[in-house]
């Protein structure tokens, strides 16, 4: 829960080349994979959390950066227009104007940023491996993937995906965040490509770099006009926050930016990823292993442009990503994230389409995906006592993480 600092009464509101060889995933290798690294869950559970102090720092970044937006008389009007567009799933309208994006970033991105920061921390053992080169060598022959035939666990998941969404809340307290390594030298760089969305991803990645003392390179790619907002937030995470003229000497002495100078390089490109040629996508990705995120984006692609184009994009992405790269997909859980297929408009869950595209389809392109984490429903709960000018709510999401392996002989 977040206290509403601008109101006289502080209400709280909860709310959160051998890619074609099927033999390569033998039953023994599948058993080893299931016992050693993947984590799957079809039930609700709670996300890990950053420290409350860190969460407040991130909220302050948003409240300072969007102070004029939050205090504007037009804020409620713009908010209503955005909500209507989102309700109608008209994503082009909701994210097509800069003033809409500023309003969206001020209203919904703070919770998303805290949530994404918790996700990155919860996946730190995989995330840090991208930067340090830990883990598998990344060659397809060494990969442990789920083969073209479905395991019994996958069949059970598929049956569940096709059944009605059933809530099975587990209201246990949130897990504690694992302690990430703080010994990594900033001479090594963690690379992230965010496809769709910008504000929450930007601040969450900055938070992860600050917590782990890593250096990072962030590429933001979106069809909406996020350039101004991205520059605004980059200044916010690399500049000490504003202080009152009455601030004490000790407060002034301890006041510092979230990130050190040069700790985060970023670039924003306004483009539709589905319209990109493979060579342009490869140029944007580059030759180094990285994390690619689709955070509340994949279902939008399925809905707005269809399954065919979205599937083609996912396969093209697999073709250009360097070995050991990670793909992180986060989206709304349950029936909201569904796409209609065929003349009968039969609906399929987003996660089923994603898993089918990455894990079940045959490929001769010299790469294979390994599923590391898959959770159908996770609660991110805002703790009591956080402060923000407007009320924020907890959120629920689904999350899926994959690692790509490449055929070194291809």
Automatic annotation (TrEMBL):
UniProt-listed InterPro entries: Methyltransf_34
Compositional bias per record (Low complexity), positions renumbered to this chain: 25-41
Pfam families, alphabetized: Methyltransf_34
UniProt biased composition (Polar residues): 1-14
Region (Disordered): 1-48, 143-187
Protein name stated in the entry: 25S rRNA (Uridine(2843)-N(3))-methyltransferase
């Amino acid at each position: 829960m977040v206290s509403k600092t601008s109101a006289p009464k502080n209400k709280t509101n909860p709310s959160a080349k051998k890619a074609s060889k099927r033999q390569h995933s033998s039953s023994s290798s599948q058993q080893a994979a299931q016992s050693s690294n993947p984590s799957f869950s079809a039930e609700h559970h709670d996300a890990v959390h950053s420290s409350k102090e860190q969460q407040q720092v991130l909220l302050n970044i948003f409240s300072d950066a969007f102070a004029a937006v939050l205090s504007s008389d037009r804020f409620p009007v713009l908010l209503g227009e955005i909500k209507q567009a989102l309700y109608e799933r008209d994503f082009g309208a909701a994210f097509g104007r800069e003033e809409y994006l500023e309003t969206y970033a001020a209203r919904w991105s703070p919770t998303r940023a805290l949530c994404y920061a918790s996700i990155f921390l919860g996946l730190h053992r995989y995330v840090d491996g991208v930067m340090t080169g830990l883990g598998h060598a990344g060659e397809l022959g060494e990969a442990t993937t789920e083969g073209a035939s479905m395991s019994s666990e996958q069949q059970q998941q598929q049956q569940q995906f096709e059944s009605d969404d059933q809530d099975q809340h587990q209201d246990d307290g949130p897990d504690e965040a694992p302690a990430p390594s703080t010994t990594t030298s900033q001479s090594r760089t963690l690379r992230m490509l965010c496809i769709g969305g910008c504000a929450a991803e930007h601040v969450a990645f900055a938070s992860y770099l600050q917590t782990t003392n890593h250096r990072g390179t962030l590429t933001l790619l979106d069809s909406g006009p996020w350039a101004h907002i991205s520059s605004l937030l980059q200044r916010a995470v690399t500049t000490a926050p504003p202080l009152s003229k009455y601030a004490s000497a000790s407060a002034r002495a301890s006041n510092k930016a979230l990130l050190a100078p040069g700790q985060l390089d970023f670039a924003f490109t306004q483009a539709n990823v589905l319209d990109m040629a493979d060579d342009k996508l490869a140029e944007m990705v580059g030759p180094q292993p990285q994390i690619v995120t689709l955070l509340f984006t994949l279902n939008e692609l399925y809905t707005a442009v269809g399954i065919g184009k979205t599937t083609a994009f996912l396969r093209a992405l697999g073709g250009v990503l360097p070995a050991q790269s990670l793909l992180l997909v986060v989206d709304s859980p349950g029936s909201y994230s569904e796409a209609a297929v065929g003349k009968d408009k039969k609906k399929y869950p987003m996660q089923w389409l994603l898993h089918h595209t990455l894990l079940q389809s045959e490929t001769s392109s010299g790469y294979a995906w390994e599923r590391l984490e898959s959770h159908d429903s996770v609660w991110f709960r805002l703790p009591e006592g956080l402060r923000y000018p407007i009320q924020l709510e907890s959120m629920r999401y689904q999350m899926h993480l994959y690692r790509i392996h490449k055929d070194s002989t291809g």
